[in-house]
Design goal:
By secondary structure, the protein is α+β, with helices and mostly antiparallel strands. Helix content is 29%, strand content 26%. The protein is built from 8 helices and 15 strands. The chain has a 6-stranded mixed β-sheet, with helices on both faces. A 3-stranded antiparallel β-sheet has the order 1-2-15. Strands 6-7 form a two-stranded antiparallel sheet. A hairpin with a 2-residue loop joins strand 1 and strand 2. The relative contact order is 0.21.
């Protein structure tokens, strides 16, 4: 599928970033058009039907007696919110202190014009590549997936290492593109839309009290989506609930701001572009802006599993059976 390249590219960048913080991550959905991994275009016969007969389809794999075929119409974009309070900069070594606080995989079905969102718990234990002093992979070890970003300079290499960790978790699935944003951008976007109003799910501080309606401004917005320690429920699973609530509300305010001020997106984009690292081209971001209104969010998913207290930090262990079934749901189709 191809889309016409549009103008106002800075406006596109802003829109993408805002949706990223929307937990639906939905905008970024249509992002991997230029380098689609499977390079698949259905061949049609003269009557407009595809030439392949479903009666002769050979399954790529079988599970519990059901045959599955790889969905070649899939595009994937990994969205990462980095635990950092400054604009994105290079580290002089191949290790940094920036963890991936927010991890979301957007899986787009270009044929059905729909997409699914997988919100990944940052405490998920999986194989993570450790980079040596030269930037080359030295070894792999099981640790929180959030730590994958700490290996590297904090730029493309750290983002790519996070991509690899997510791919490893999902049975080596191919991930087409990534976009990482430092968490500082939350407060910038939040204040640009005039604040975001929510009914607090937790007491975070004197300004944010559980059960009370509050308009989040400045650092309180960041505190609401980031705070976990010191709460009655300090698990990342509970924090993910707040993130979803907040980001949905943010999206509504962003839409309202764009409708009332035609320059809003462009002006805000100039403030936050330095907070992003991505392998997406400007044209791909433009494709997202052009096509996002035509696609439907078909499912919002999280990993099933158990959160436990490790030697030092929280650890989340996925339910392997549930994970494999989720993998099939995201990337395969059932052969009838």
């Amino acid at each position: 599928m191809k889309f016409k390249v549009r103008k106002n590219l800075l406006k596109v960048v802003l829109y993408v970033l805002c949706i990223f913080f929307l937990v639906l991550g939905i905008v970024l959905l249509l992002n991997a058009w230029e380098q689609r991994h499977y390079s698949y275009t259905p061949e049609s016969s003269g009557d407009g039907e595809t030439t392949q007969s479903t009666q002769t389809v050979t399954p790529d794999l079988e599970y519990n007696g059901t045959g599955y075929k790889l969905n070649k119409n899939i595009e994937t974009v990994l969205l990462v919110g980095v635990d950092k309070y400054l604009a994105s900069t290079d580290s002089e070594t191949y290790i940094n202190s920036e963890q991936a606080d927010f991890i979301m995989l957007v899986v787009i079905d270009t044929k059905n014009e729909s997409y699914k969102v997988l919100h990944i718990n940052r405490d998920t234990m999986t194989d993570v590549q450790v980079l040596g002093v030269t930037g080359v992979v030295a070894f792999t070890r099981v640790e929180q997936i959030a730590l994958a970003h700490t290996y590297g300079s904090g730029q493309e290499d750290s983002a790519e290492n996070t991509v690899d960790a997510v791919s490893q978790l999902l049975y080596d699935v191919d991930i087409d593109h990534y976009i990482t944003v430092t968490m500082d951008a939350v407060a910038i976007i939040n204040d640009a839309v005039g604040g975001v109003t929510v009914t607090a799910l937790d007491t975070i501080n004197d300004d944010i009290v559980e059960g009370e309606e509050v308009t989040l401004l400045g650092e309180n917005a960041l505190a609401y989506v980031r705070t976990r320690y010191g709460l009655d429920d300090s698990s990342n699973l509970h924090r993910m609930e707040r993130q979803e609530q907040y980001l949905k509300a943010l999206m509504e305010k962003f839409k309202e701001a764009c409708e009332s001020d035609s320059d809003f997106a462009l002006d805000t984009a100039l403030e936050i572009t330095s907070y992003m690292v991505s392998d997406c081209t400007v044209n791909e971001l433009s494709d997202i802006y052009s096509a996002m209104s035509d696609y439907e969010l078909s499912d919002y998913l999280t990993l099933e599993g158990e959160a436990t207290v490790g030697d030092t930090y929280m650890e989340f262990y996925v339910d392997e059976d549930a994970l494999y079934e989720l993998y099939l749901d995201l990337f395969y189709t059932v052969i009838e």
